[in-house]
Amino acid sequence: MRIFLIGYMGSGKSKLAKALSEELSYELIDTDNQIEAHIGQTVSQIFDSKGEDHFRNLETKILSGLSEKDNIVVATGGGLPCFNNNIETINKGGTSFYLCHKTQNLTDRLFLGNEDRPLIIKYKDRTSLHPFIKINLKRREKYYFQANFILNGDQTIDSLVADVLWFKNQIGQ
């Protein structure tokens, strides 16, 4: 089985993926970490030196390589499902879960740790960050809502793990 966690940056995909991989004894794959290890640069450095389009193509390449792996939990980058028909690849290759959050919750979460996020680093206060997230999230939700299952991202990690395991059992995998 392949479990894909999708959602906006700061939604908790990496933390949930780690908890799920431990619970299920599955391999943990974080697509941003895979890209950084492969290229030898941070996501921000790749954005700065090669641009967003190059980064999105790297994401697609990493994603296509996952089709041969089993028993994995994948934390995708926030934009990965939204480009290059990646949401279709995700849903054909595994079971996807969208960690859904309200815009204000994402703003609060991201404002505290935005120094490593190339799309939001320029926002120095919540007042300017909130409208950006609202607009960008609205654009991305048409992809996120194509996930097989939607989770309330405001739950604790333990609750989210329990929800994913329940859904996994319902589909018989």
Description of the structure:
This protein has 173 residues and is an alpha/beta fold. Helices cover 54% and strands 13% of the residues. The chain has a 5-stranded parallel beta sheet, with helices on both faces. The model has no long low-confidence stretch (mean pLDDT 91).
The figure for the number of domains is 1
Give the SSE string: EHEHHHEHEHHEH
Strand content: 5-15%
Average of pLDDT:
91
Number of strands: 5
Distance between the termini: 7 Å
CA gyration radius, whole angstroms: 15 Å
Strand order of the largest sheet: 2-3-1-4-5
The number of distinct helices, counting runs of at least 4 residues, comes to 8
Secondary-structure content class: alpha/beta
Within the CATH hierarchy, at the fold level, what is the topology? Rossmann fold
Helix content: 40-55%
Q: Supply the CATH class.
A: Alpha Beta
CATH-level-4 superfamily name = P-loop containing nucleotide triphosphate hydrolases
Task: Offer a concise description of the structure.
Helices cover 54% and strands 13% of the residues. The protein has eight helices and five strands.
